[in-house]
Specification:
heterotrimer; A alpha/beta (about 450); B mainly alpha (about 120); C alpha/beta (about 400); B: about 120 residues; about 5% strand; C: alpha/beta; FAD/NAD(P)-binding domain; eight-stranded mixed beta sheet; about 30% helix
């Protein structure tokens, strides 16, 4: 398949994302940042970072990391002048110390005319896509359909598929919603998983679960995403050209997890990529745009990613096991200790990502000394946090207000018994794949509907 | 719970480990992006906090975290960690800003009622 | 502390004036009181300042209304908005980009000359636009809906949080104490006079109490035995991802019951209302309303269909049958002042704060404020304003 990217013709395999095809062509900068016009590239792989919007056939804000190449489309980057590669307005980045958050409230406060002018200039300069062309805008059309399934499963990863099979197995009608191919982040994992009598790598189990879901008559699979949980219990699902109004008796949230970014100067440079994004590029898009990698981790995840990278031919020069803020782990208990036999492991802290436009090197502090390690990939593999947004919305409505629900940060307790809601997998904070458990939760939800 | 402590440690380590203060620390925090959508930096969060925006909801409005296309998916945890670190706690005392619809951006055209005669413009 | 300017301790046992609600109304009133020398003032809010409708509105400002009462009150506000940044030493990002009220129906088109003539009589300058002129001003609008309009050039919008923060800081500098996290349960009265308020942290004495509690103002009134025919309403808004500037001015459409503008950052912000919506405290948004908004905005700006909605939120107000605010001393309780029933509260606050402070400090009700007295609701009189983009249908 081929598409046009800023005058060039790029090719892609079916199912490959637009971002991965652009990356493969040797273009690491996908956009410029909103305020400082900093170069940005592929980061998350799952539409959680806002670093990859492109304009496709006149439609702005298309998430290129999750949008597959269709063939024949015209793709442009949206920000940067004259181009996203060389943006003269990057100069605003050098003025960063003069324009921190809130500077606009101090600027020209006694000069209303100047203030208004400054605002107009800001509107022109701010990184944003163009207004859609009439043709592009009119192509966005939707029909609405009512879905009558008893159980709605949001998310088709390992846990979501298992829960859907559980619910359908106990006789309930099930709709499963998942953006893109079933399998989720599990498709890029090698960890060993048990499902029923079978024990295999997560990627294999994910594949088998996905096939079983697709083959099951009682499960409707929708390629789309859950928009929100609304008052009165309606859960709209947005798919291509379709809004599905679901009013399930039971909602199973299996939305997985979000990667957590690292906190260090230069943490937004193209080449600094979150673990799920790396996994997806290697295993799903099958694109390897890097040569030398540093992996940053706070647990076991780093090593798994390092192994995947090496299998794909990327040299992993260091696995930096982040050393926390003073509280040293129990001897022998921490992941760092388990990894000491690996010569790539450095017990230290990532201090900075370097490189003028894209990542060239990583500064790592070990034992009080900073080493600069050359690399074109810094894979950030920190413990992810539950993608609990949908479950939180369900709880707001249950509580009658957005004000009353406590916490909501990563440690929020979602197991609390909100009737009609179950949360499974990493969305519930499970630290490893447990399809048997998810299946049981789904079965319980399904059989409750039968009575 | 171990994981929150781990991430929280990241925020603290960022500052403690540097053994730097004042201008040097400010310069580093200015190049540390918390919210890529709006280029809100660690410096923005810290200085807004120090100026008095000490509630997740007011810090959100002061720095525009949680308000970009990601709606907090990427910046939410880090923001929470920074607030916690500034409070000297492992999790912020206040709840996170509410999760507003839609969970992912939706094109306006995708929400238009196909039957135009139906609800819109009924006020005439 | 939740915001710069918020006091850190607990409230004292007594103040000259207690203002309930640290929204834009309460803070503007407190600021104006302090400016006229009354500085022993406490503003109490159960949440963070600006957390209610003050931070959830459409940010739009105009004075080109069809009635004398509205036009004069809001013209004072508009004048205040243009001087506030300098006065508060805080840029409230007032953008005088102009405000267009669209004419869509034959009736609206027929009336627009008359309305503009009335506005001129009230001292509000506006321009009547025909279809071609509207087209030049808002080229992306659907010509079937944008058939004419009344354009007020010096109107526009401001940043709602900045207005709250600016008032808050300036009030605090002038000596006002603003507390967040203090829940007022009741207004205390004795023998037809207000004596203070009861809070979750104890009673606070005051000779003057101002009710600026927004959606909860009616609940507070009941504790002082003040009964007004107010109903709660939920208004909802959307914001899109930023796009390059396509909409130069603020636009309201009475036909679609909507109002919108594009921020300096490039986000399109729009709000609409459904006739006959629910009465609720909930700040959750509703699905039907979201789709209705999208439908309306895409009808008005067809190409907006290709822009992504980032966020949808709701705010609640407590409104009167005629949708006009209630300003002034409460009937039957001396010392208990009301700045409530606001539906256009953000745009009215600078005027209301000044007028209410003036009436509290001088004991005389300014002419511009007088028509908004609560007695009109008890006596069944209403202020007739025809260019509003909200409706009372099915409400009262």
């Amino acid at each position: 398949m081929a598409f046009t990217f800023e005058g060039r013709t790029l090719s892609a395999r079916p199912g490959q994302s637009i971002a991965s095809a652009i990356l493969q062509s040797g273009t690491p900068v996908l956009t410029r940042s909103f305020k400082y016009r900093r170069p940005r590239g592929y980061t998350c792989g799952y539409d959680i970072c806002g670093n990859c919007p492109v304009t496709v056939d006149g439609l702005p804000g298309v998430t290129s990391c999750t949008t597959p190449v269709r063939g024949g489309e015209v793709v442009r980057r949206e920000r940067g002048w004259p181009s996203a590669d060389r943006d003269l307005l990057r100069a605003t980045d050098l003025m960063a110390r003069f324009v921190p958050a809130g500077f606009q409230f101090r600027l020209f406060r006694s000069r209303p005319r100047l203030a208004h002018l400054a605002e107009k200039v800001m509107g022109r300069v701010a990184g944003a896509g163009r207004f859609p062309t009439p043709q592009a805008a009119r192509a966005v059309r939707t029909r609405t359909e009512v879905d009558v399934a008893d159980v709605l499963v949001a998310g088709g990863g390992v846990s979501g598929c298992a829960a859907a099979l559980g619910a359908a197995g106990s006789g309930a009608s099930v709709t499963l919603v998942h953006p893109g191919r079933l399998g989720g982040r599990g498709s890029a994992r090698d960890s060993i998983v048990t499902y029923g009598r079978e024990t295999a790598p997560a990627a294999e189990v994910a594949g088998r679960l996905a096939s079983a879901v697709l083959a099951h008559d009682g499960i409707r699979v929708v390629d789309g995403f859950v928009m929100s949980y609304f008052e009165t219990g309606v859960i709209p699902v947005v798919a291509d050209g379709l809004v599905l109004e679901c009013r399930p008796k039971h909602l199973v949230v299996a939305t997985g997890s979000y990667d957590v970014p690292g906190l260090f100067p230069g943490n937004d440079k193209p080449g600094v990529v979150l673990a799920d994004g790396v996994g997806k590029l290697l295993r799903v898009d099958r694109v390897v745009p890097w040569r030398r990698a540093v992996v940053m981790t706070d647990g076991d995840r780093g090593r798994a990613l390092a192994d995947q990278l090496e299998q794909a031919g990327v040299e992993v020069v260091a696995i930096v096991v982040q050393q926390g803020a003073g509280a040293s782990p129990e001897p022998g208990a921490g992941p760092a200790d388990r990894q000491l036999d690996d010569e790539r492991v450095l017990l230290g802290t990532v201090r900075a990502a370097r490189g003028a436009r894209v990542l060239r090197a990583v500064d790592v502090e070990v034992d009080g000394r900073v080493r600069t390690i050359r690399a074109d990939l810094l894979c950030v593999a920190l413990a992810p946090r539950p993608a609990n947004d949908l479950a939180l919305q369900r709880q707001y409505v249950a509580a009658g207000t957005t004000q009353a629900v406590g916490g909501g940060w990563a440690g929020a307790d979602l197991s609390s018994s909100t009737p009609g809601l179950s949360v499974v997998g990493s969305a519930a904070g499970w630290t490893s794949d447990d399809p048997d458990r998810a299946h049981a939760v789904g079965a319980a939800a399904g059989s409750a509907q039968e009575k | 719970m171990a994981r929150e402590v781990g991430v929280f440690a990241q925020a603290l380590a960022t500052w403690r480990g540097r053994r730097s203060s004042g201008r040097r620390r400010d310069a580093l925090d200015r190049r540390t992006i918390v919210c890529p959508c709006h280029d809100a930096t660690l410096f923005d969060l810290r200085s807004s906090w120090e100026a008095g925006y000490r509630h997740p909801e007011t810090l959100k409005r002061a720095t525009a975290v949680f308000m970009g296309p990601c709606q907090g998916k990427l910046c939410g945890q880090v923001t929470g960690d920074v607030i916690a670190a500034l409070q000297g706690a492992t999790e912020p005392e206040e709840r996170r800003p509410s999760v507003r619809p839609p969970l992912f951006p939706v094109r306006m055209g995708d929400l238009v009622y196909e039957d135009e005669s139906k609800p819109a413009g009924g006020a005439a | 502390m939740t915001l710069p300017g918020v006091a850190t301790g607990r409230p004292r046992a007594g103040y000259d004036v207690v203002v309930v609600g640290a929204g834009v109304q309460g803070l503007a009133t407190a600021y104006e009181l302090a400016r006229s020398g009354v500085t022993n003032v406490a503003v109490l809010d159960r949440s963070w300042p600006g957390g209610g409708a003050s931070g959830r509105n459409g940010e739009m400002i105009r004075s080109a209304f069809s009635s004398r009462e509205w036009a004069q009150l809001f013209d004072l506000s508009l004048r205040r908005f243009s001087e506030l940044s300098a006065e508060l030493d805080f840029n409230i990002l007032f953008s005088p980009s102009g405000y267009l009220v669209l004419s869509t129906t034959d009736e609206e088109l027929r009336r627009q000359d008359l309305v503009a003539a009335k506005q001129a009589e009230y001292g509000v300058q506006s321009e009547v636009l025909d279809a071609a002129e509207v087209r030049r001003l808002v080229p992306h609008a659907n010509p079937e809906l944008a058939r004419g309009g009344i354009f007020q050039r010096r109107a526009g919008f401001a940043h709602h949080d900045a207005v709250v923060w600016g008032y808050l800081r300036a009030a605090a500098r002038a000596g006002v104490s603003v507390f967040s996290g203090v829940d007022v349960h009741a207004v205390l009265t004795s023998g037809g006079r207000v004596t203070g308020v009861r809070t979750d942290g104890g009673d606070i004495a005051a000779d003057v109490v101002v009710n600026a509690a927004g959606a909860y103002s009616d609940d507070l009134n009941l504790t002082a035995d003040v009964h007004l025919p107010l109903v709660k309403a939920r208004l909802e808004m959307i914001v899109t991802e930023p796009v390059k500037p396509f909409l130069r001015c603020a636009v309201a459409t009475p036909h679609l019951l909507g109002y919108c503008h594009q921020t300096a950052r490039g986000e399109f912000v729009g709000g609409t209302e459904l006739p006959g919506h629910d009465e609720t405290d909930s700040l959750n948004t509703t699905y039907h309303m979201l789709r209705d908004m999208a439908t309306k905005w895409v009808r008005l700006f067809p190409d907006l269909g290709g822009v992504r909605i980032l966020r949808n939120w709701a705010g609640t107000v407590s409104q009167a049958p005629d949708l006009a605010p209630v300003l002034g001393e409460a009937p039957g309780v001396s010392g208990y002042h009301l700045s409530i029933a606001w539906v256009y509260g953000f745009m009215g606050a600078p005027a209301a704060g000044r007028l209410l402070a003036e009436s509290i400090t001088t004991g005389r009700v300014p002419d511009v404020m007088a028509p908004f007295d609560a007695r009109r609701l008890i006596e069944g009189r209403s202020i007739a304003e025809s260019t509003l983009v909200v409706t009372t249908d099915g409400r009262s």
